[in-house]
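Troubleshooting log. The previous structure file for this entry was overwritten by mistake, so regenerating from the original sequence record. Sequence copied from the archived sheet and checked twice against the printout by T.R.
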Amino acid sequence: MTPKTPVNRIWSLMLGRRQLLKGLGVAGSFMALGGPGRLAEALAADSPATGTSSGDIPRRALGKTGVQVSALCFGGAHWGRIQDDGEAIRLLHAAIDAGVNFFDNAWEYNGGRSEELMGKALQGKRQQVVLMTKVCSHGRDKKVALQQLDESLRRLKTDYLDLWQIHEVVYEDDPDRHFAPNGATEALLEAKRQGKVRFIGFTGHKHPDIHLKMLSHDFPFDTCQMPLNVFDGTYRSFEREVLPVLNQRGIAPLGMKSLTGNAEPIKQGIVQPEEAIRYVLSLPIASLVSGIDSPQVLKQNLDIARRFTPMTIAEMEGLRARVAMFAMDGRYELFKSTNRYDGPIGRQQHGIS
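Regenerated output below.
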């Protein structure tokens, strides 16, 4: 029996996948297609993989919002660690000039530096981008969440966000905390009513059951962010369990951790960057959030996006089979199998050192 320590409390979720999927209304299509992986693949085959573009970077629909976003989303975490402000700003401007229009951030990234730096970089360019940041209340109340929103707006030098997401829903009790009276989900709705945000969503990287628990509530999420990579299909798979639900409901799926968070499989030669990114872009997602901290990484990812063609189902199956022996225990997805990738505020809120 698995002990219920803070590290693995996620294993004790009471709602099973099958029960959740029935409640979410996708069980019929799920079984008719032979399971979750087949449903995701069928949706991938039916979904336009490119769409309109600017600067040859593909654009895709952000769910049912009516907004088109670049298939690559410029991540704010890695970028915010660049020490030279001028270098960081030039890198972001190069992404915009290349056709990237979707930008990611979070209230807690690099102690607020990521938001402040992006606010500087977007002066005079705000209307060219779809700007997203995240609230990092980690289960604290609506008041804390709305205070963070105002601080994010000040740092980003804007009076509204295109997308505001609950950050890092990764612990078993997080959905209950966020949906409790006076919780973060109430803050999302209040911010939308006030006109401070256009769209709302949530993110997480630990276990698909936690995402499904969030989605079991009748709540108008516009987006949902989750890890998607070639290893995910074998271990705690968001592609198999969550992606079909999002597509069924018209919630825009946002991918992240396409290189597993630390690019270790790339360094070890297990997969190549292009096949890893191409795999995720071949899934029915709106955009892939990509960590970009240098001109070299930006050029690599832009080149991959520009020459992107969707993988066939056979190619995707072959790639998953090739890495399966490395994927079974989460050794390359430590954000799922350990607490190393959990943010400091969330760890503190849940009593984890």
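The chain has a mean pLDDT of 88. Archived copy saved in two places this time.
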